[in-house]
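So, who can interpret the following?
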Amino acid sequence: MGIDVLTGPIKFDEDANMSEFKAISFSKKTNIFFKLSPKYEYFLNFSKAKEELYTKAITNLMKKNEFLQLLIQMLQEQISEEEYEEELLKNREKYFIELKAIESPEYYNAIVNICKSLKSSISVDEVSEIFGIKQGDLFTAIEA
């Protein structure tokens, strides 16, 4: 990391207000932290958002697969409709994708970046399901 990445080293003490820093510690012995310039802070936030979105996409894919397996069990009469409904009510977190708001511009940009890297086009419905993002937020972000 070149020196242009940082705005300078800051010595940490117990009285310092660390809330203003997106700090990276290079040494626990010296407790020296560096405040990142806005350009690199954005890059780190974007990278973090992208990593979280990949994890969310895999988690949501697994939830969808669990749901479809349960549905197939019911359709093939391996379980009753009552057992199916009971399982869904009892284990919602296992089967249902929670839709949230877009957390920041970095998250929206990471979603766009991921979608552009796919070989086929993807609908807003699919983006919403894969990343657990409310469709209204996607439309709002697209229009902005």
